[in-house]
Structure formats: C-alpha cells, structure tokens
Design goal:
homodimer; about 240 residues; alpha/beta; Rossmann fold; 9-stranded mixed sheet
Chain lengths: ~240, ~240
C-alpha cells in the first residue's frame, strides 16, 4: 500500500489517496485512535463519484469510523474491460429501444466485475487493517454494485455487516450467493428506481439467509435516497461494528 | 373528557385513565409544558394490550411527546359488536381450516370497526388537544388496525404523520382510501408475519399517494418487530411533529 497524496477536509478529516498494487483508492480517517472500518462501494469512476463519496465518507467518519474505497476494474483511469464495455453498450441499447435486458447481457456486464473486484477489495482490506488508525474488529461494507457486496459478504469473514443498495442489474448467480449470506443486512430500495426491477429487488431481499435483515424502501429514483437514511446507516453500523 | 384515575410511572411519567363519552382511554404525559401528541393504535382490548402499550408510551413520552390511546368499539369492556364478532369467528374458522379468507369476511370484520372508531378517535383528539399539556401542533398516529389509520389519515387534517403496522386484514376500500393519503408515512412490515399477506402489504404501500413514504421490512412474525424500530419511529416523528 502506497499513499500518493493527502489533504485535510472539514472537521479534521484526513483524506489520503493510495494504491494497492495497481488499484487506486481513497482513505478517510480522523485522529489516530484505531477506528472500525467501513468500505464504501460505488458504481465505478472514483473521480466522477468523488463528491458523493466524500460526502458519505465525512458522515461515516463523523460517527467514529474510518472509511475507504477503491476504484472498480475497468473504471476511471484503470485499463478498460472490453467485454464489460461491450455488454454495457448492449444494455444501454436495449434500454433505449425499450427492450428487455437479457440475463446474458447482465451476466457479461456484472460477473467479470465481481470476479476481478472481490479479490481487489480483499487485498485492500489486508492493507487497510494493517494501519494503526484502523482497528482489526468487524468491518462494514456500504453500497456499490450489489453483486460485489453479496460476493464479499459470502467469501470475506472479516465483513460483519452490509448495507446494500438495491439498484443495479443482478445476475442469477447473485441470488444463489445471497442464500449463503448470514451477516446482518440493511437493504435500501428506491421504490421508483428507473434502473431497477422492484420485484427482483424484493426477491433478492427474500433470498438472503441473514437472521437480521431489514429493507428500507423510499420513494423516488436511483439517486433520490433521502438524507435521513444516513442516520439509519449510522445506527445499523453502530449495532454491528462496535 | 373525564379523568377517572391517575398514577405515576417511571421517569416522572403521569398515566391518566379517562373517558370521552362512553369510550375509555389512557393518556401519558410528563411535565406541564405543551407537547406534541402521538395517538397509539392497537388491535383492541386495552387491558390485555396494556403492558405493550405502556412500554411504547414510555418510549414515546421520553422523546418529548404526549401519548394517548382509546379502546376500540366492541373490545375490552365496551358493548360487543355482534356482526364483528361473527366475522372474527368465521375468520378464525377459515384460517384453522387452511381456507382462504374471503373479502366479504374481511369487510364485515374491519369496516364496522373503522366506521365507528374513526369518529371516536376524532372526538378524543378534540378533548386531548384542549388540554394544556398538549400543544395544538401536528399530531402523529402510530400502529393499530391499519384501516383505521388510513381512514384517519384521509379525513383528519390534524394528523400530520402516520406510522402504520402492515399486519392486519385489509378490505378493498382501504386501498382506494390509501390513494388519497398524502401525509408522511412510515410503514413497518414483518416479512414472515403469519397473519399477513406480504404481497398485499407491498401493494398497499405502493398505493399510498404520500411523497414521503418509507417501508421498513424486518424478519420475523407479527410480534417480532425489532427494538431498533423504536428509534426509527422516534426519528420519523421528530422530523414531522416538531
């Protein structure tokens, strides 16, 4: 892990850019006492997503956590993934033509991302948990591509609680992986999300094997999650990461 | 309104039994400064429900509200409603026989309750809002028979926010009334509620016209709402009754 830059944000939060191998990321911390870590997901494109990620990170750090994220494969300045780009183009074409999005397109779009991203998040986790500012207790994940979150929740025992956004296309294999997830979950669903199949999101919520799983459905589209859900996230992590 | 008894509970909360006309009720307050009012619903039978109602009331009063409830028509010590009792017996028989519960039974069970209860809650509201310990600002309702809550949300302009439990049989007319509800809503759904049709609960949530409506679904049966939803309720009312 190499730190490449740092700056102070509001409220004494230290933002540091880093790389783990070839993968760039950002870490937000405050103070030197070891804090529990929340990994923040996103749809890819750290620079484009930066304003929203930094706002989420400031809220997370204010609650006493360290927050970190890394770039997704094929996104931002990372080498493109030709197969994923082709599938994304087919997806957009199908949506614009008003045609149904086939399982095949979704699998070619999402599965290569999951297969490559999950080991990268695990490598980042190894590096982050070795820092003195981060404690080696339970880790949370919040948001991002839901199939990546589900796979991480299955394969990574250090992750103890997951906040998932039901807002992206989900391959069938994610449903079978969901049946193996047993950690506490908070799933946020935008009821009128134009890029989301509501019934599929409800079916996925039903599939999780977790004894504690909560669905919060709110009105509005993909980016319209109400501000008060930030408080819900804080209380969810406070129950499970402390 | 006549107060018939009073006692001090924990934390300085004053519990007073009262009647409005022939309808008995309970009021919980703390201190003399005017507080916003939350009306607490229940399935009927104040004495049987008392432990759970008092626990909810203590939590509500601790957050700075006054809490009140009244007995439902045909329940507790009030005169029985023969038609409702007959419909309830038919409902239990159908459930025990594993038969579907017909719309007709649900309507004969719920609609007479709604028609009689709603004016009684409004009369109680008149009396309660005249008390110096209760301010004349927005009123919240929490829980109880969902069809009563929906009707109150439509016809009673003093009610500004409703927390509804998706857990009872719902006549078709409640769906058309739900389309007229525009106040902020928080709907709690127990995902595995044995006495509840999950899809019907989701359809009812979809029907509400409220711009701010949030669904919280948790695992477990009818009485298994997690304790942390008490915090959700407090934050919901803090946004809308202050």
């Amino acid at each position: 892990m190499h730190f490449t830059s740092e700056q102070r944000l509001d409220n004494g939060v230290l933002e540091r850019r880093f790389t783990v191998g070839d993968v760039p990321g950002i870490l937000w911390t405050r103070g030197s006492a070891p804090a529990p870590l929340v990994l923040m997901g996103h749809p890819g494109g750290l620079d484009m997503m930066y304003p929203r990620l930094a706002a989420r990170a400031l809220g997370t750090v204010a609650e006493g956590y360290a927050a970190a994220t890394i770039e997704l494969p094929g996104a931002g300045d990372r080498p493109r993934l030709a197969g994923v780009d082709a599938a994304r183009a087919e997806l957009l074409k199908a949506i614009q033509a008003g045609e149904p999005v086939s399982d095949d397109i979704v699998e070619r779009l999402v599965l290569p991302l999951v297969d490559q991203a999950v080991p990268e998040w695990q490598a980042a986790l190894d590096a982050l948990l070795a820092l003195p500012e981060i404690n080696d207790g339970p880790v949370g994940i919040a948001g991002g591509v839901i199939s990546i979150g589900v796979r991480l929740a299955v394969v990574e025992p250090r992750i103890s609680a997951a906040l998932l956004f039901a807002g992206s296309y989900v391959p069938r294999s994610t449903f079978s992986e969901a049946r193996q997830v047993t950690i506490p979950l908070l799933v946020l669903l935008q009821w009128d999300d134009e890029g989301n199949d509501r019934q599929m999101a409800l079916d996925l919520f039903d599939a999780f094997a977790s004894k504690e799983k909560t669905l919060h459905a709110n009105m509005g589209g993909h980016t319209g999650i109400p501000a008060f859900e930030g408080e819900s996230a804080n209380r969810f992590f406070a129950r499970h990461l402390r």
